[in-house]
TrEMBL record:
It comes from Etheostoma spectabile (orangethroat darter). This is CMP-sialic acid transporter. Keywords: Membrane, Sugar transport, Transmembrane, Transmembrane helix, Transport. It is a multi-pass membrane protein. It is found in: Golgi apparatus membrane. Belongs to the nucleotide-sugar transporter family. SLC35A subfamily. GO terms for molecular function: pyrimidine nucleotide-sugar transmembrane transporter activity.
Length: 315
């Protein structure tokens, strides 16, 4: 297996972008599921559209990598259309990721974004365990200690906004935590499985992404019509969509591509650490959002009265 060397700056760039995208995605998704006015969109359609966009972006990146449409066609014929075994192999993480993404929507529909992010950090020890079991890697006691210390440290982040945000739907914390538990397991397994597939051959990252997203589109379409088929036929596929929803889909698509790059050139534990940093950003942003707003109008009137009194005293 050939090892591709990339600069430390590139790795840091990918980790930074992925962290920012993940934090923004969590807050935005929570907003669309609870705060947005109007009718609620179908989360299964958003997951499906995300897979389609990621496929299109991966095709674009593969076109750039191959350098010509002829070589692109040859790559697709060789690795996609005439490689059913490879497609079947990549269908495993695509199914698991589809479940994970739907669980994220369910969890953020029932839990605050900060609670979701803090609890979701259980993926760090889960990913480390999957790395040991599936990739036959060994972690030292210090590394295991660091993993659990990081997980615990993020969990102990204090979040106490001054004013609670109004929510327009009923929430079930129990359902939310069950959804997070499923998402944690899916994230650890699918991430490490995909890393193993990526690093066990010289096949292009974008070819692997295309293989996975093709399966993902099929799986998510099945989920769309199994869960919301009747409602979609009645109201439409894009029912309830707003600019914010499209923004969430865009973030999920870009975040998915950067995640695959991080897995390719680093590993899943680094990916989990990046998401932990994102959790801190989410908690800080929600805390700042919840701070009481200062009434500048009253303040200005008060200052004006004070100045007037001082002038009278001077006169």
């Amino acid at each position: 297996m050939a090892v591709e060397n990339v600069s430390v700056a590139f790795k840091l760039y990918c980790l930074t972008v992925m962290t920012l995208v993940a934090a923004t995605y969590t807050v935005s998704l929570r907003y669309t599921r609870t705060i947005s006015s109007g009718d609620l969109y179908f989360s299964t359609t958003a997951v499906c559209i995300t897979e389609v966009i990621k496929l299109i972006l991966s095709l674009g990146m593969l076109t750039k990598e191959t350098g010509s449409l002829t070589r692109l066609k040859n790559a697709l014929v060789e690795h996609v259309f005439f490689s059913p075994k490879e497609l079947l192999k990549l269908s495993v993480p695509s199914i698991v990721y589809a479940v994970q993404n739907n669980m994220a929507f369910l969890a953020l529909s029932n839990l605050d974004a900060a609670v979701y992010q803090v609890t979701y950090q259980l993926k760090i020890p889960c990913t480390a365990l999957c790395t040991v079991l599936m990739l036959n890697r060994s972690l030292s006691r210090l590394q295991w200690f660091s993993v659990f210390m990081l997980c615990g440290g993020v969990t102990l982040v204090q979040w106490k906004p001054a004013e609670a945000t109004k929510v327009q739907i009923e929430q079930s914390p129990f359902v939310g935590f069950i959804a997070i538990a499923i998402a944690v397991i899916c994230s650890g397994f699918a991430g490490v499985y995909f890393e193993k597939v990526l690093k066990s051959s010289d096949t292009s990252l974008w070819v692997r992404n295309i293989q996975m997203y093709l399966s993902g589109i099929v799986v998510t379409l099945i989920g769309v019509f199994m869960n919301d088929g009747e409602k979609i036929l009645e109201k439409g596929f894009f029912f309830g969509y707003t600019p914010w929803v499209f923004f969430v889909v865009f973030l999920a698509s870009v975040g998915g591509l950067y995640t695959s790059v991080v897995v390719k050139y680093t590993d899943n534990i680094m990916k989990a650490l990046s998401f932990a940093s994102g959790a801190l950003l989410v908690c800080v942003s929600i805390y700042l959002y919840g701070l009481p707003k200062q009434d500048t109008l009253k303040l200005s009137h008060k200052d004006t009265d004070t100045e007037s009194k001082q002038r009278l005293i001077t006169v």
